[in-house]
């Protein structure tokens, strides 16, 4: 019996986001998710970036739950990086607070526009990675 070689086709990952578990791959995935959730498009006229979190917040109940699940995925990735329970609790609290605010009609929509829990969580993760995995640091302009 011959062993089958495992090969990952790079075509689905042409964006540079890799499926690896190393800190650099996790950082790229989290940054991409945060960009999707918080800053995918610019609202013309006011030049304010919004993302899927804001758009999903417009859908009552289900949209906020789905946005919270995507935010929880970021916390899950942070857990896999070995972040402390205190950091994870704070991050989960931000996602939960965002979800609770989102449950309130109109106020929740405004909160999604101004309160960016995923961006705050990304900053926490970047601080952790820069301290514990300095090779993952990227230069931003």
Offer a concise description of the structure.
The protein has 141 residues and is mainly alpha-helical. It contains six helices and two strands.
Task: Quickly list its features.
141 residues; 6 helices; mainly alpha; single chain
Shape: globular
**Helix and strand sequence:** HEEHHHHH
Oligomer: single chain
Radius of gyration over C-alpha positions, nearest whole angstrom: 17 Å
Low-confidence stretches: 7-14
What would your notes on this structure say?
By secondary structure, the chain is mainly α. Helix content is 59%, strand content 4%. It is built from six helices and two strands. The protein has helices at residues 23-38, 52-57, 62-80, 85-102, 107-114, 117-132, and strands at residues 41-43, 48-50. It has a two-stranded antiparallel ribbon with strand order 1-2. Strand 1 and strand 2 (48-50) form a beta hairpin. Helix 3 (62-80) packs antiparallel against helix 4 (85-102). It is globular. Residues 7-14 have low confidence and may be disordered.
SSE diagram, text form:
Elements: H1 23-38, E1 41-43, E2 48-50, H2 52-57, H3 62-80, H4 85-102, H5 107-114, H6 117-132
Antiparallel strand pairs: 1-2
Helix pairs in contact: 1-3, 1-6, 3-4, 3-6, 4-5, 4-6
